[in-house]
Amino acid sequence: MKNREVADILRKTAQLLDIKGDNPYRIRAYERASQTIESLTKDVEELAREGKLETIPGIGADLANKIREILKTGTLSTFEELKKEIPPVLLTFLEIPGLGPKKVKVIYEKYGITSIEDLEKACLQHKIAKLPGFGFKTEENILKGIRLFRERTGRRPLGEVLPLAEEVVFLLRNRAPVIDIAIAGSIRRQKETVKDIDILITTQQAETTMKVVAELPLVEEIIALGDTKTSVRLRSGIQMDVRVVEPEAWGAALAYFTGSKAHNIRIRELALERGLKINEYGVFRGEERIAGRTEEEVYAVLGLPFIPPELREDRGEIEVALQGKLPQLVNYEDILGDGHVHSKYSDGSASLEEIILKAEALGLSWVAICDHSQGLKIAGGVPVEELWKKKKRIEELNNRSQKVKLIMGAEVDILSDGTLDYPDEVLKEIDFVIAGIHTGFQQDERQITFRLVSALKHPLVHAIAHPTGRVLGEREPYAVNMEEVLEAAKTYGKALEINAYYKRLDLNDIYVKASVEKGIPLIIGTDAHHVDQMDFLKLGVGVARRGWCEKKDLLNTLSYEKVIEWSKKHKS
DNA sequence: GCCGTTTTCGGCCCGACTGTTTTCAGTCG
């Protein structure tokens, strides 16, 4: 959790410098450092102890000192000084759509406004329109931005937005004269949460296409309407940007609009070093376009292999690609099983038969049925007698079913003292024991970590479910030292779950990457409580790919027989 | 503030759209 805190202070420092009007490149240095620290798979504190801070790209002597200061004192004197000059509440102004650092600065300096309420009042009194560079239109936009800011729920889970984006693509394919159309942006990168929907189109009739976009039934409001770019807000509140380019620029534009911004910046710097220029229309040597039709082409002229969208975060993928050592990411087609599904035996809605049918439809060959353990009454925890019935039923079905086998599993609660919710003689009879924390979220870091490590140490446990306990937009992760948890998983040869339920995605991409680096086995489980939720498997694969997972890193890519073999080996 | 098979100083990604402007700054992605 330390990395996040350091990154936070660096980011806020950058934003304050931005409002102050400092050197833009200095600001960028802070921003980049913040992003880099946030996506480190190692503890920044450990790197500091080892004296390796300066080896992190984008961190020189000065920033290394500042990071050491943050680690030592919990804050940064540069940051504290800035806060005296510029009230930190102005940082929230930056979150109002339409307001950037320059306008915020003017508003603060001319009127001393330091709260959203005062800003709203000033707009209503038409004081803002009088400021230089402002006007009535700006004033209206700020008021609208304040309304949006207030009702905004922040970033949304990918699993919520993806179906919307797919519907838009479907509608435009049918209603507009499009040649190519694709979802770009953070959705294409499979980021766990997204801020907006980016759609890229090639067409011979840009104007008509833009008109169709603006008139889609899902559209609530048109934010900007141009020849090649249209921004709208959908009824669900999310913003959607649609761009049109000519077919010759498809690859360049797709790369550009897929991002991430940090990845794009690095790619363009690389192009400059080679005397080339990249924009969304292609790769240029002088006036001549030398690539752009496909993404492969764009990367190739820079001497790079195709970099999968999920890796494009400037987390080392470019350096690795230059060395020709990109990971062979796991594909959805490699997935043979779902590691975590609930049935009617606990709080799931599906029978074992229905789960088999769904698995077959998904092309899976096994499913681990992991119902809650006895103590978790609220979630229909399975008492021991029921468990034996379930085991018998699974055996019967396995004898009958050829294509899909069920694995007798259980999601066993890790109790407050670190012991498990079934006795050992029961656990012995379960082929896949995935242990998880479902109560006592408020305990301190020492106790939560102790509980997880105890479970990993237990000889009858195979894996840890949703290891950090976070629920996107609802619940922060519990206080846990993940370094220790990862070390324990490695030591005892246990697996960690990538819980694919759309609001969990836990482990996240960064911890997945850390696990892969340590050689810890991972298992994707949808945590489905309804057969439809088994579709979330795709989201799990997205997280795995973002965490640099290869086929060998995931237990889901093993055949039923091999999983059972692994399970037996790890129960000793 | 970072960084260097052109550089230890002088560079640092690129363009669309809007609004307030008579030529461009600010915001956004």
Detailed description of the structure:
Helix 1 (2-20) packs antiparallel against helix 2, helix 1 (2-20) crosses helix 7 (101-111) and helix 8 (116-124) packs antiparallel against helix 9 (136-151). Strands 11-12-13-14-15-16-17 form a seven-stranded parallel sheet. Strands 2-4-7-6-5 form a five-stranded mixed sheet, sandwiched between helices. Strands 8-9-10 form a three-stranded antiparallel sheet. The longest helix is centred in the first third of the chain and has 19 residues, at 2-20. It is globular and about 75 Å long. The protein contains 24 helices and 17 strands. Strand 9 (282-285) and strand 10 (288-291) form a beta hairpin. The chain has four domains: 3-152, DNA polymerase beta, N-terminal domain-like (DNA polymerase, domain 1, Orthogonal Bundle); 156-244, Beta Polymerase, domain 2 (2-Layer Sandwich), CATH 3.30.460.10; 249-322, DNA polymerase, thumb domain (Beta Polymerase, domain 3, 2-Layer Sandwich); 332-569, Metal-dependent hydrolases (TIM Barrel, Alpha-Beta Barrel). The mean pLDDT is 92. The chain is α/β, with parallel strands linked by helices. It is 44% helix and 15% strand. The structure holds one DNA strand of 29 nucleotides.
- Structural class comes to alpha/beta
Architecture per CATH nomenclature, i.e. the level-2 architecture of the largest domain = Alpha-Beta Barrel
- CATH H-level homologous superfamily name of the largest domain: Metal-dependent hydrolases
Number of strands: 17
In CATH, what is the class of the largest domain?
Answer: Alpha Beta
Number of helices: 24
What does the largest sheet look like?
7 strands, parallel
Low-confidence stretches: none
